[in-house]
Amino acid sequence: MKRVYIAVINDLVADQRLNRVALLLVRNGLQVRCIGRRFRSSPAFQPEEFQIRRYRMVFNSGPLFYAFFNIRLFLTLIFWKRPDLIIANDLDTLPAAYISSRIRRVPLLYDSHELFTQVPELIFRKRVQQVWKWIESIFLPRLKYAVTVSYPIAEIYRRLYRVRFRVVRNVPLRLPRPEKGQKPGRYQGKHLIIYQGALNVGRGLELIIRTMHFLENAMLIIAGKGDIEGELLKLVREERLEEKVDFKGRLIPEELISLTSSCDLGISLEEDLGLSYRYSLPNKLFDYIQARIPVLCSALPEMSRIVETYGVGVSTNERDPEKLAAVIRYMFHERSAGAWMDALDKAANELCWENESQTYLDLVAQCGLLD
Question: How far is residue 154 CA from its own chain's centroid?
Answer without folding.
Answer: 17
